[in-house]
Amino acid sequence: MSGCPKLRISGLALKASPALADPLCMKATVKKILVASMVTMNLAALGLGTYWVFISTVGYEYPNKITEKKLREPASLNEKFAQAPLVYTMDNLVVNLAGVPKRMIMVQVNLDMISPIAFQEIMDFDNRAKARDRIVRILNDKTFDDLETIQGKLFLKDKIVSEVNQVLSKGLVKDVYFSAFVMNSEL
């Protein structure tokens, strides 16, 4: 193979001597050209693959790592208010009902507040006392027959909402729930 002339590359054209007409020299030359082109194509494919991987990862953000320090940080009240319903639960009220025979009612009232501002307002001691007093007065005016039916309980809820909303200046009560509602039948 040492007898084959070398190819000279000038510009884009290959120049070879007439001795390349020899089949053995031709095979060796073609083999060199094929190897050089395969190496070039492999390098181009490797570069293109690297480019695609790089482009596909541009803008990728790694997820936040949860660490023990982050788990120990207290959640803010605003986040808790945004996720949870704002329900203020009053203590049990035991009240005498109007009418004869004398009867009693034990009720636990839960006020569903419309906003965090309303919740903070009902948590104020003066407003809590005023709201509790209004509810006691409403219950004192009711008879056993008024509260015995479902419709009577719904009217009671509406009355409590309107009376407590009069106590509050900034917030509103959205709804009232009874978590305990017990009336004795006769003393």
UniProtKB/TrEMBL annotation:
<keyword id="KW-0282">Flagellum</keyword>
<comment type="function">
    <text>Controls the rotational direction of flagella during chemotaxis.</text>
</comment>
<keyword id="KW-0812">Transmembrane</keyword>
<keyword id="KW-1133">Transmembrane helix</keyword>
<keyword id="KW-0472">Membrane</keyword>
<dbReference type="GO" id="GO:0071978">
    <property type="term" value="P:bacterial-type flagellum-dependent swarming motility"/>
</dbReference>
<feature type="signal peptide">
    <location>
        <begin position="1"/>
        <end position="21"/>
    </location>
</feature>
<keyword id="KW-0283">Flagellar rotation</keyword>
<dbReference type="Pfam" id="PF03748">
    <property type="entry name" value="FliL"/>
</dbReference>
<comment type="similarity">
    <text>Belongs to the FliL family.</text>
</comment>
<keyword id="KW-0969">Cilium</keyword>
<feature type="transmembrane region" description="Helical">
    <location>
        <begin position="33"/>
        <end position="54"/>
    </location>
</feature>
<protein>
    <recommendedName>
        <fullName>Flagellar protein FliL</fullName>
    </recommendedName>
</protein>
<keyword id="KW-0732">Signal</keyword>
<dbReference type="GO" id="GO:0005886">
    <property type="term" value="C:plasma membrane"/>
</dbReference>
<keyword id="KW-1003">Cell membrane</keyword>
<dbReference type="GO" id="GO:0009425">
    <property type="term" value="C:bacterial-type flagellum basal body"/>
</dbReference>
<keyword id="KW-0145">Chemotaxis</keyword>
<dbReference type="GO" id="GO:0006935">
    <property type="term" value="P:chemotaxis"/>
</dbReference>
<keyword id="KW-0966">Cell projection</keyword>
<dbReference type="InterPro" id="IPR005503">
    <property type="entry name" value="FliL"/>
</dbReference>
